[in-house]
Amino acid sequence: MTTGPRLSPAGRRGGRGRRPGCPGRLGGSIGVAPLGTAFFGWAGPEGFRHAAGWTFGLCAGLLVLAFLVAFLLPRHARPHDEE
To answer: What is the pLDDT averaged over residues 38-47?
Structure first.
């Protein structure tokens, strides 16, 4: 475990690295929470194997849905309006 300050390379001093912050963590938790809720909701008398199968199917379906929705995004960004 390091206890000293983090030193950045000479070329990057003053800048902040691109790392996932609060929005990335929030998005991850919003994505994981429904899957955990579904898993433990399905884990009844049938057991965890049954719940894992349904949760895997749900994950696969959501992945396919995200893949298809990605094609609805515009191919090029809109230019900035000069003010």
So the answer is: 88
